[in-house]
Amino acid sequence: MPASAADRPNNVILFIADGLRSPMVDDSTAPTMSALARSGVFLRNSHALFPTFTTANASAFATGHYLGDTGDFSNTIYSAFPVQAAGGSVTPFLESDPVIEEVDAHFQGNYLNEETILQMAQAKGYGTAAVGKLGPTYMFDNVGRKAIVIDDSTGSNKGVALSQDVQDRMKAAGLPLIAPTRGPNGVAGDFKTPGTKVANTTQQDFFAAAATRVVLPMLKEKGQPFVMVFWSRDPDGTQHNQGDSLGKLVPGINGPTSLAAIRNADDDLARLRAALQELGLADSTNIIVTADHGFSTISKQSATSPAAKDSYADVPAGMLPVGFLAIDIAKALNLPLADPDANYAAIAAGQHPKGGNGVIGTDKDKPKVVVAANGGSDLIYLPDGDKELAGKVVRMLLEQDYVSGLFVDKALGAFPGTLTLDDIALDGKAVTPKPAIAVNFRSFDTVCGEPARCGVIIADSPLQQGQGQHGSFSRADTWNFMAFHGPDFKAGFIDPAPTSNADVGRTIAHLLGLKAEDKGNLVGRVVTEAMKGGEAPEVTSRTIVSAPAHNGLQTVVNMQMVGETRYFDAAGFPGRTLGLTAPPQPTH
């Protein structure tokens, strides 16, 4: 077990390899991670939280809570007020420091409504830092901002200001005070032009250099225990934009560019470990390596979607445009559709919202329906709480071949074929608007031998078929990599028990002797079985099945439990979600 409260706790580094699928890690693809998992603890039954998006799971890492408490339901949410940092949109994309700052201010100073591990560590005088991808990095210290924060926005008026001491040390280390851009790695291409063919090496080299040559030495000099977050944009950013597979499902996100991105993240971890050795910190630092979510290749095919039957200037014929869900709902309700990310411009036939989001109704300021498009799943909001309208939307969704599972706010009533938000821990103490319906999209695999390595999802995304996305309830998206290593953890141990990203936040707090003052009850657990002297927990399995819809469809959830803590493996309609199994005798 970790040091007692009377002793000095060991340091913690949380390394997040964004979008890293667990079955992709081996000695050839990611030798540093593979070796760390082999010599420390490999958590082979790990879980991202649904919706499997970055800021949503960052909120779980940061607070130890499920999304029903943090209110970060996806990368894009409905804010119910125009966010000026997002161009006045009511559907802000949260991977932005100024957007998070404005959303925080609107929701009593902290939209997560829970304390983060960095804030708790600061209260005890410990050192804190967060380095890497903008948005999730900022979230760990969104209140108070006492940590060293270095991200994409560093050096700009949108970034967290660096202290003079940090600036001086950056200069002494030969590092720029302005973070480099992604360069060619940020090129996504279009339906005619392939995206990037290079990993995010330049930007991440800057982050790794800043962490190893500036931040870690400063944390050591402070003379107190510390917690540092390092958020590697790769492999996520590269898997999204890769140009290896334009229009094709194979190789999809398993081409050479994606593999280079996995190695890029692995190399950054190797640099951090080498720096710990050089600084004499290796024996007193626990390293938690994980990912916010898995990943899948994008499909844009549907035989039922009205949106796919229209023609668009920038979409291959017969393919789903970005915003297909908003378009299909607006058509089904015979209501106007406007784009909240384009000054609420009306969307006519042959047009689509530029980011997929939509406000539906005759008054843009009082919409009947809001669609927050995210990728492998979307969120639908009904600002009026209209139960009759909810029923119409559900019936329309049940007719679409791209849908695989619906989760509805129980305040709207019970609908055959659907389960509730509460069934998947999306109904808690959140202060942000709660979705009316969470829509999971269909997933399958390309038959590569290990389904979770080659998953495919229908994605409501500006990206193209053959590129990469996540967000679904497919096991390819929920099965993130996770491994622990360090003085408080066992050596050479494979943990078969289920774990989740909420457990990571809880476990870090435990290692550092931090005590959260929880507002919500949807929390992870401390992974004590991974610690020295820890015992294996009792694990149970459970499947939840909805009543059948008029067409026989049933939303099914496969889950595991440790005590009252829930772990969601996969969910959706049987036959439409990768990794989902349905019992022969369902219970409602």
How do the strands and helices of this protein lay out in sequence?
Layout: E1 11-17, H1 31-39, E2 41-43, E3 46-47, H2 54-63, H3 67-70, H4 97-106, H5 117-123, E4 127-132, H6 136-139, E5 148-151, H7 164-172, H8 201-222, E6 226-232, H9 236-241, H10 256-278, E7 285-290, E8 296-299, H11 306-309, H12 324-333, E9 337-339, E10 345-346, E11 358-360, E12 369-373, E13 377-381, H13 387-397, E14 403-408, E15 419-420, E16 437-441, E17 443-445, E18 455-458, E19 468-469, H14 475-478, E20 482-485, E21 493-495, E22 499-500, H15 501-511, E23 540-545, E24 556-562, E25 565-572
Parallel strand pairs: 1-6, 1-7, 2-21, 3-22, 4-5, 4-6, 8-18, 14-15
Antiparallel strand pairs: 2-20, 7-20, 8-19, 9-10, 9-11, 11-12, 12-13, 13-16, 14-16, 17-18, 23-24, 24-25
Helix pairs in contact: 2-15, 8-10, 12-13
Number of strands: 25
Envelope shape: globular
In percent terms, what proportion of residues is strand? 15-25%
Write out the strand line-up for the largest beta sheet, numbering strands in chain order.
5-4-6-1-7-20-2-21
CATH architecture verdict of the largest domain: 3-Layer(aba) Sandwich
The main sheet comes to: 8 strands, mixed
**CATH fold group of the largest domain:** Alkaline Phosphatase, subunit A
As a whole number of angstroms, the C-alpha radius of gyration is 22 Å
CATH homologous superfamily name of the largest domain? Alkaline Phosphatase, subunit A
Q: What is the count of DSSP helices, taking H or I runs of 4+ residues?
A: 15
- Give the end-to-end Cα distance, rounded to a whole number of Å: 41 Å
**Parts with pLDDT < 50 across at least 5 consecutive residues:** 1-5
Mean pLDDT: 97
Q: Classify the helix fraction into a percent range.
A: 10-25%
CATH top level assignment of the largest domain: Alpha Beta
Given helix and strand content, the structural type is alpha/beta
Number of domains: 2
